[in-house]
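Training component of the fellowship. As part of building independent skills, the fellow (R.M.) carried out the full modelling exercise for a liganded target. The chosen ligand was nicotinamide-adenine-dinucleotide. The inputs are recorded below so that the supervisory panel can assess the work.
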Amino acid sequence: MTGRLAGKVAIISGGATGMGGAASKLFAAEGAKVAIVDRNEEAAAATVAEITAAGGVAAHFVADVSDEVQVNNAVAGAVARFGPVTVLFNHAGTIVIKPFLDTTLEEWDWLHAVNVRSMYLMTRAVIPHMLGAGGGSIVCTSSISAVAATPMEVLYDTTKGACHMFARAIAVEFRDRNIRCNAVCPGFIRTPHGLHEVDELQKRGVDVSEAAMQAAQGRIGEPEEVARAALFLASDEAGFITGTHLFVDNGFTAI
Ligand SMILES: NC(=O)c1ccc[n+]([C@@H]2O[C@H](COP(=O)([O-])OP(=O)(O)OC[C@H]3O[C@@H](n4cnc5c(N)ncnc54)[C@H](O)[C@@H]3O)[C@@H](O)[C@H]2O)c1
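Fellow's submitted model of the complex:
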C-alpha cells in the first residue's frame, strides 16, 4: 500500500461518523490500517465496510471512550489485530448546550469524562506501543471553542480548553522520544454534532443563522476538510510540527 500513511497503524476514536468517519476513510485510503474505536457499533461497522469495499484495511472496536476498562480493551484489540499503533486521532467527543445556571454537576462530570478523560485514557493506553515502535503521531480534536466562547456552552468550552492544552503538554513531554502531538481546531462543521449544535443554539436564541455563519466563517465546513488537516498532522510530512494548534475554521478565530 502506498500513501502518506503507508505502514502506519492508526486508531481513530469517534471514527464512525462525522469528521472521525471522514478521517477513517481518508487515513485508510492513504495506506494506514485503521482501528475505529467508537460506541456506535452500527455506524462503525458501516464505515469499516465502506473502507474494506474500497480496498482499505480497517476494523472497529466498540468502547465508551470515557471508560478505562473499555478503552484498554479496545486498544489491546487494535494492537492484537494490526500491530503497534503509530497514529492516534483522539476525536470522540460531545456537547452540552444549556444556560449555565441550568447545568448540573452530573453533566459537568459526564462531559469532562467524554471529552477530556477520554483523551487521557486513550493516549495513556497507546503511548507505550508508540514508544515500542520507535515513535508516533497523536492528533487531538480541540475546537474554536477552546479560544472563542459561545453562550450556552460553558461546559463544552471548558472541556475544549483542556483538550487544547492536553495536546501541547503531551507534545512537550514526549518530543525527545519521537512522539509528536498536535491539535486540530475545527469551526462549525457539517456533522451530526455540528448540525445538532447549530439547531440547539438557534432554539436558545444564539444567532447561528446562515447570515451569522457567513459573517463568522464564510460557510459551514465539511468533515473532509478537517480530515485532511488531521492527515497532515498525523503524517511524516509534519515531522517538525509538534505542540501546535491548527485551526480549520476559514478565519473564524482570525476576525
Ligand atoms: N462538528 C463541529 O462543528 C465541531 C467543531 C469543533 C469540534 N468538534 C469536535 O468534534 C467531535 C465531534 O465529532 P463530529 O463533529 O465529527 O460529529 P459526530 O457526532 O458525527 O462524531 C462523534 C463520534 O464520536 C462518537 N462518540 C461520542 N461519544 C463517544 C463515547 N463516549 N465513546 C465512544 N465514542 C463516542 C460518536 O459515536 C460519533 O461517531 C467532538 O470532539 C467535538 O468537540 C466538532
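The panel noted the following from the submitted structure. The domain at 9-189+222-248 is CATH 3.40.50.720 (Rossmann fold). The pocket of nicotinamide-adenine-dinucleotide is lined by residues 14, 16-20, 38-40, 43, 64-66, 91-94, 114, 141, 143, 186, 188-189, 191-194, 197 (CB under 6 Å).
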